[in-house]
Amino acid sequence: MAVRERPVSGGLAPREETLGSPPNVNRADCPSRGVLEHVTSRWAVLILAALRQRSYRFSELRRQVGGVSEKMLAQTLQTLERDGFIHRDAKPVIPPRVDYSLTPIGHEVAEQVWTLTRWVEGKLDHVLGAREAYDGARET
Q: Region annotation Disordered: residue ranges (predicted)?
């Protein structure tokens, strides 16, 4: 993989990309694969969907996304922030206050995963029926 410089505020930052070829998530070395893994992880989908409506403090978000541990929530938020999907706003007050919200590109990807979650919920009966039929055929 070649490294190409890209402009950012205050100078240039390296960006890994394969020069001369467009992104292809099916290619093992394509950086888009990692981004896809980040936004489609179990917890990222739920976090992004929750943040569609409003910003949340860490503890509020943990309650909103049932079942996520503090460690997994912190790791997932950090990954999504690094990828540019989430903005972390730490306010210098006592006690400390940190709010998480979506960036513009975060709103875009959140809409995509929201559509997927609604589709899954709408097709749940079909999937559960298919599982039951599959499992029943295996038992005989």
A: 1-29
Q: What are the residues facing 9 on neighbouring strands?
A: none
Residue 1: how many CA atoms within 13 Å on its side-chain side? 14
Q: Which helix (H) or strand (E) holds 126?
A: helix 104-139
Q: What is the pLDDT of residue 19?
A: 56
DSSP assigned state of 6: E
CATH of domain 31-139: 1.10.10.10
Q: How far is CA 17 from CA 13, 22, 31, 124, 130, in A?
A: 13, 9, 7, 38, 41
Residue-range domain boundaries for the chain: 31-139
Least confidently predicted of 8-12, 115-119, 126-130: 8-12
